[in-house]
């Protein structure tokens, strides 16, 4: 059997981690034959709660789990780590935008970037979930200069899954029949959910989503707004932010990073911009990517019309503002 993979989960005593840990532990992400060492990080006051989570994980008696470490020390958690789910951060409450969390959360990612820089494997693969996810990922990468920038990503897969589910429900098809929905930009209410390049399988025939939906007004307005506002709608209803669906999306993201995308299909991930599609280099921007050999590459050459261009630039402008505010906060 392979050596255990060292997997960090931060915010391990929280809502998202409670669903995430179970899926990771039973092999949904790294495969059914990959043994795991789980490195669970939370803050000192949460150690008792975290201990309860560890007890439950033990009680699941999952054969893949070879060791569990629970700690409040980032350097212990990141030591020789292969993969990290960066969940630990404050969630927003009703009426807040995700960027309102910047002041509270960005320093966490500075400190944990510094710890990863010192002790993690240089090949570590990192997904940032804690909000504002794109900007936190950018900051973490900045403070971990010895780890390649391509190893830092942020989660927009939940937005992709939400968009896919909206289209599937509108057309009365199964979620798996909808492919290549794109999320461009920030994981925020300025994100651009784009179905211009998406397909749907209807009765065995592949057609584009705009052809199948036959309602441009819906796709340009209600659809986009529903996806942009879905996180807020869940908070309003649940009084807590999305957790089960966020955990599922984090698993999808990391699974695809390890195992690759299928054929010509692509998925959306926040990755460091290389200037593709005219987006400022260095922003952590959600793009469509294909993944092979654990390496993502931005899908090139998609047609961008005027409507899309404006939406893509608006979300980039917000990311630029966030990054400037985050850098000021970290340097203060
Ligand atoms: N990117 C995305 O699509 C999504 C992102 N989120 C974000 O994920 C984050 C976590 O959400 P929940 O699990 O629901 O929140 P939660 O409040 O239930 O759990 C967060 C956990 O992080 C811990 N934490 C705080 N500071 C920490 C630090 N410095 N180091 C380690 N752990 C720390 C807390 O003690 C708590 O146990 C929030 O920022 C939320 O907004 C939530 C849903 C989707
Ligand atoms: O909306 C929030 O604050 C939590 C989140 O990121 C999401 O559900 O997409």
UniProtKB/TrEMBL annotation:
Domain called Lactate/malate dehydrogenase N-terminal: residue spans: 6-152
GO molecular function: L-malate dehydrogenase (NAD+) activity
InterPro entries registered for this protein in UniProt: L-lactate/malate_DH (IPR001557), Lactate/malate_DH_C (IPR022383), Lactate/malate_DH_N (IPR001236), Lactate_DH/Glyco_Ohase_4_C (IPR015955), Malate_DH_AS (IPR001252), Malate_DH_NAD-dep_euk (IPR011274), Malate_DH_type2 (IPR010945), NAD(P)-bd_dom_sf (IPR036291)
One Pfam short name: Ldh_1_C
Active site per database record: 187
Superkingdom as given in the UniProt entry: Eukaryota
Gene Ontology biological process terms from the UniProt entry: malate metabolic process; tricarboxylic acid cycle
Keywords: NAD, Oxidoreductase, Tricarboxylic acid cycle
Residues annotated for substrate binding in this entry: 92, 98, 131, 162
Domain Lactate/malate dehydrogenase C-terminal: 156-329
EC number(s) stated in the UniProt entry for this protein: 1.1.1.37
NCBIfam families associated with the record: MalateDH-SF1, MDH_euk_cyt, PRK05442.1
PANTHER family per the UniProt record, alphabetical: MALATE DEHYDROGENASE (PTHR23382)
Name under which the protein is recorded: Malate dehydrogenase
Organism listed in the record: Plakobranchus ocellatus
Lineage of origin: Eukaryota, Metazoa, Spiralia, Lophotrochozoa, Mollusca
